[in-house]
Design brief:
The strands form two sheets. The chain has a ten-stranded mixed beta sheet, with helices on one face. The chain has nine helices and 20 strands. The chain is of the alpha/beta class.
């Protein structure tokens, strides 16, 4: 470690960090570099511009250690999280791989497994990507995740290959007062295609910390549908970083659903690094009680003829608080960029809060870009119309709230997951009647 850690939370968290041994030199070096970065960083404060609406003081009072061991689960214990139209599944319990609950086989030739199993035979494919996209030099949570990196969910879609069915990466929290460091690495080689589901769930309503990092690499003409679902315990803390690198004419479709956690934060960074790259970024935060859901996104158009579409929605109930900060940058040589960004927010009570900041930074002159945000409550004319058709006031409000969120859920290309999420949104709107 190059410096002395002055942040009490970080110092306590790293007490049990052990020097890497037994792994490949490049992986050991990556972990050590990340640890050195931790020594130069501190936990975010509300005085920091990027964190001014998200107070994580309650998190920094809880320097939970990694789970020393994980419980043995029966498939029946978690079958309600399984998806009927998914054949390939990797399961991690409290951040640790559970091979007995996983099914990594894929008939289409896609390579699916955990890092510890694949690293010996696929090191040359993994080393150019692992730790290369997540900015752990300036992001303390990404630095911690990388310093504690022991295993990861790995998906490699070979050249000219399309995965037959979606691939489910399931991360299950089972223990209170622990910190887990889930990691995902998705590599799409040229002309490949796949749908990936990154799913965070909890068996019980416990207090714990999830600090996740996902890195996605799309080669030329590849196509990835990436569905990210966060349905942690309402007492949990969920800090996440997803970093995406796109090559020429690649297409990245992202759908992020935030339902759980007391405090959650998603940093989504998409780099359109070559000509003709496209991305579609949809998000939904559905929160209530004292929950806080913070989404920060950065879409960087670096080359010409790029396209991006972003729609992020928040449904905020009770005393909950949602934050959206979406930044789109068009670099000087990224001519003929076509980009739109929309944030729509629905407040269900007078105490619900939302802070929204859509941003466009344009340094090219031949572009078509637009952005906007709306914040409001349910439309009284729409409520009146539904009541005139025989619905009660509560039923009318619930139907409109459900329809607001369903626009995002309807875009999920996995029928079984879509059905599960529809039931969750429906249950949430019905709770408003009590």
């Amino acid at each position: 470690m190059s410096g002395v850690i002055t942040d009490n939370y970080l110092r306590d968290l790293l007490k049990n960090w052990q020097k890497p041994s037994g792994a490949l030199p490049w992986l050991n070096q990556l972990r050590t570099e990340a640890l050195d970065c931790v020594s130069t960083l501190r936990m975010p404060l509300t005085s920091d511009e990027e964190w001014r609406f998200t107070n994580i003081a309650s998190l920094t009072a809880l320097p939970f250690q990694e789970a020393p061991s994980t419980p043995t689960l029966n498939p029946l214990d978690i079958e309600n999280f399984f998806l009927g139209d998914v054949a390939t599944r990797l399961v991690f319990i409290d951040g640790q791989y559970a091979p007995e609950l996983s099914n990594g086989t894929n008939e289409s030739g896609v390579i699916v497994g955990n890092l510890a199993t694949l690293i010996d035979n696929h090191s040359s494919q993994l080393s150019p990507h692992l730790g290369q996209y997540a900015d752990f030099k300036n992001n303390v949570f990404a630095a911690l995740n990388t310093a504690f990196l022991k295993d990861s969910a790995v998906v490699i879609i070979p050249r000219n290959t399309a995965a037959d069915t979606p691939i489910h990466l399931l991360f299950i929290a089972t223990q209170a007062e622990v910190t887990s460091y889930p990691r995902c690495l998705l590599i799409a080689e040229p002309n490949s295609k796949a749908t990936i589901i990154e799913d965070y769930v909890a068996l019980r309503d416990l207090t714990y910390v999830t600090n996740s990092v996902t890195e996605v690499s799309l080669a030329d003409n590849s196509h990835i549908n990436h569905v990210r679902v966060q349905r942690d315990s309402d007492k949990a803390f969920h800090m996440a970083d997803c970093s995406v690198s796109q090559a020429r004419s690649s297409y990245y479709q992202s759908m992020s659903i935030a339902l759980g956690a007391n405090i959650s934060r998603l940093n989504l960074n998409i780099q359109l690094e070559n000509e003709g790259a496209e991305c579609s970024v949809d998000g939904l935060a559905l929160i209530k009680g004292q929950q806080l859901a913070d989404t920060h996104s950065f879409i960087n158009h670096a080359k010409p003829n790029g396209t991006s579409r972003q729609l992020h929605k928040c449904i905020v109930d009770s005393d909950a608080h949602a934050i959206f900060n979406g930044r789109i940058m068009v670099r000087p040589n990224a001519q003929r960029t076509d980009s739109t960004q929309t944030n729509r927010n629905l407040l269900l009570t007078n105490k619900a809060q939302v802070n929204t900041k859509p941003q466009l930074e344009i340094f090219a002159d031949d572009v078509k870009c637009a952005h906007g945000a709306t914040v409001g409550q349910l439309d009284h004319d729409e409520i009146f119309y539904l009541r005139s058709r025989g619905l009660s006031d509560i039923d009318a409000r619930n139907l409109l709230t459900y329809a607001f969120g369903a626009e995002i859920i309807d875009r999920i290309p996995v029928a079984s997951l879509k059905k599960q999420l529809e039931q969750i949104v429906l249950k949430h709107t019905q709770c408003n009647a009590s």
